Prior knowledge:
This protein has 13 helices and 37 strands. By secondary structure, it is an alpha/beta fold. Among the domains are: 424-535, Phosphorylase Kinase, domain 1 (2-Layer Sandwich); 556-754, Transferase(Phosphotransferase), domain 1 (Orthogonal Bundle). The protein has an 8-stranded parallel beta sheet, with no helix packed on it. It has an 8-stranded parallel beta sheet with strand order 14-16-18-20-22-24-26-28, with no helix packed on it. A 7-stranded mixed beta sheet has the order 3-4-6-8-9-10-11, with no helix packed on it. The longest helix is centred in the last third of the chain and has 21 residues, at 562-582. Keywords: ATP-binding, Cell membrane, Glycoprotein, Kinase, Leucine-rich repeat, Membrane, Nucleotide-binding, Phosphoprotein, Receptor, Repeat, Serine/threonine-protein kinase, Signal, Transferase, Transmembrane, Transmembrane helix. It is found in: Cell membrane; Endoplasmic reticulum membrane. Belongs to the protein kinase superfamily. Ser/Thr protein kinase family. Its EC number is 2.7.11.1.
Amino acid sequence: MELGYHFLTIHILLCLSSITPLAGEVTTSKTDVSALLSFKSQISSDPFGVLSSWNESLHHCQWQGILCGKHHPDRVTALVLDSKQLTGSISPFLANLTFLQRISLPDNQFQGSIPVELGHLGRIRFLNLSMNFLEGSIPSTLGNCSSLQVIELFNNNLHGTIPPNLVQCKNLTKIDIESNFLTGGIPPEFGHFPLLRLLGLSENNLTGTIPFTLGNLSSLDNNIWGEIPQSVYNISAIVYLVLGDNRLHGTLPIDMCGPFSNLQHLYMYDNQLSGRIPPSISNCSGLIDLELSNNSFNGIIPSTIGLLEKLQTLTLGYNKLTANKPQDWKFLDALNNCTSLQLLQLSHNQLQGVLPGSIANLSTSLMKLSVGGNLISGSIPKMLGKLTNLDTLFLNDMLLNGSIPEEIGNLFRLELLDLKKPERNPQTDSERALKFESRLVSYHDLLKATENFSSENLIGRGAFGAVYKAVMSFENVTTVAVKVLNLETHGASRSFLSECEVLRNVRHRNLIKVLSSCSSIDQHGNDFKALVIEFMPNGSLETWLHPNTNSNLDLPVRSLNLIEMLRIAIDVATALDYLHYHGPAPIVHCDLKPSNVLLDDDMTAHVGDFGLARFLEPPDIQLFESLTSTTGIKGSIGYIPPEYGVGGRPSMEGDVYSYGILLLEMFTGLSPTDEKLRDGTSLHKHVEMAFPEQVMDIIDTRLEANLYASKNVFGCLLSVVQCGLSCSKNSPKERITIEEVVKQLNSALKKLLT
């Protein structure tokens, strides 16, 4: 079956053996000092001045972030510099700190690769490099660190496969490498860690089946398929089992909760599981969270579910669960025993009949309740007014009649109430997602229009798929672009739905226009999803800023001039201003970059690719579904605002940061990941150091050759660069709004033309 991350927590005391000196060791405390100074030399930005103490006036064991040993008081045993906003690369000379037991550098801005030399640290126990911008692969040399107990590398930009020889580290209790770009499968060897308590692999691009050997462990979440190995259900010590958002199929075992005496969190949402929910689920008496939504479970909901007295979250929505007669609703009476229940989702099943009044007897701690999208009829129970802690209530898309009871007014905490009636005509998933007036297209239509998706018609690739040029007739145009989703990529389906949801709610001249969609089956019987969008003959801004041979478009061989560049910048800012403040609901794009800015035949810019976009105030049930989502926000390296890397929520300020980087890139010709910035200097810092006196020194030479002949050129460039710097400040509170950006850039253009 496919990967998910699942957490295995085993309460076992670790007996740590005493550490003996390494054989043949000749290093000294002077070597330690040299290694630390080498580390300091690789730091290009230290905004808090934490390394200012690293000088000869203090003993190195008194330097900030340094700990030394008790038995060897001059030897460094720990390097701890968490959340210091350090920028730079990690020096390979750290490997000379031979007494080092802990490296903790999370939540900084380290770039480059993880030094392979760290594999020489024989005493290292804890390695935490999470929440940085590290690239490259996980060094296989770490398998030589036999004392390692914890590896934390999550939230980086690591690529490649997972080294199987990590299994040589027999003392490992935790491996967390979530939120990277790792590929390949889970090494079968990982089932042989004797002490492993937590294995986090989610938010990667892992594929393949879950090795049967992992039944010895317990924790995964990625692009995995197949059935859940029976061995997983035999892990008596498991506390977390998270297998959500995969393609797992099959049924749950009749006695699945027999050995799960310690299970507290069971996540199997967004899969292809079927069959009945076994009554034996009640044997998992310690369950706190039970999430089985977005599957194909059928039959009635077992009333034994009410025996889960510690239950706080129960999501069963988007299945095929039934309630055809009054006794089928007994589970609702039984849930009265769950006095800690806070979230109950039963939406979009096949529950029918009158909504029992006993729903009002649910726990008063209940905050979110959704039963919409079922075949429920009758009136809204007055007694719902007793659930005074409700802040979200969905009774939408059902056959309810009568008036809204006055008692609903007692729900003083209520923030979101949906009583929307069902649609004039049931629609397909694609129609419901897009609601476009234009005709839908079939897979075979697109196959023909793109000449079997030929490489000659390929005009671009993105994180979730490819874009092809196609010959089709739509609204007086004969050439379109077809964005084909790669559904094997983790998150692609959600990206499709997100883009559909955004694009059906917005219309603006500087946003890409979607003409139609396709949600079908391809010639091999696999799911197929695609969007038909406007064709932009002048390609993306990326191809103009950084020309390459990867595009099949015949673009003119020239550079953009100052006025063109400025007008494109204004177009993009105007699009963001519409999304943030003037659309049906505030929307943040979350992935603004040059490749997502497309240019039409008169060089007007259109912002596209809304696969990561988010509603700040979702207009319908999408909000409720997002409440239990564990999917994090991803963007593109270099354009992601710093706060997103440490769990910050999507925001307008985040979009403004990405726009600021884009603006600086347009006028300097340097991408934020350019080789010239590999010394750890960010694009923002590179420009800031030249501003304002040397601003002409950092302007793109190609743009400089095409500058508009005006005495106000220098003043215009100063305004633009200052705007880019104001947008890309590290602190969200210090950034200007996109409304202010539009004003400043229009003012700069006006001055230029006078």
